[in-house]
Backbone:
């Protein structure tokens, strides 16, 4: 009996995982696929913008080639998908780990949503480079929108060329 339950649970998990993957826009899927090949490596000069530039350019996305990476979306009202791009301007984050409070700043920074950890709580795993933790190589870090205390964050949905 337990064996049948485990098989059923696995089938349900596979079904929901497949459906979640299918709901990600195709261009976003391509961007995440590209990013997965760059983790631990330096993209171009190692600037944060270089990762987004290459991900969008190699996948023929339409964007302004500066800091508007597609269609602006509201992360509070709209679904955020892996492959969406975030531009940080004058952002400060404060959060606690154990008994220690940390403060991070992102004066001018670009990152790509690599994974959505919790859509409702707005917790994401970001892929980015030119950071304190990964240097000029692409690394992954958790980002919780509730930790933002000041600054401006723009979320962009990549737009395919048609």
Residues:
């Amino acid at each position: 009996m337990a064996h049948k339950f485990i098989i059923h649970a696995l089938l349900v998990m596979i079904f929901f995982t497949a459906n979640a993957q299918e709901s990600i826009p195709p261009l976003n899927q391509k961007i995440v696929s590209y990013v997965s090949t760059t983790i631990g490596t330096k993209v171009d000069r190692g600037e944060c913008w270089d990762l987004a530039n290459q991900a969008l350019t190699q996948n023929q996305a339409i964007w302004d080639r500066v800091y508007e990476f597609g269609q602006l979306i509201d992360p509070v009202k709209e679904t955020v998908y892996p492959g969406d791009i975030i531009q940080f301007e004058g952002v400060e984050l404060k959060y606690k780990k154990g008994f220690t409070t940390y403060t991070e700043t992102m004066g001018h920074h670009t990152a790509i949503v690599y994974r959505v950890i919790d859509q409702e709580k707005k917790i994401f795993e970001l892929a980015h480079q030119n950071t304190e933790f990964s240097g000029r190589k692409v690394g992954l870090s958790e980002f919780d929108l509730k930790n933002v205390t000041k600054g401006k964050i723009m979320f962009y949905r990549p737009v395919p060329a048609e």
Observations:
- The chain has one domain: 26-160.
- The first strand starts at residue 61 and ends at 62.
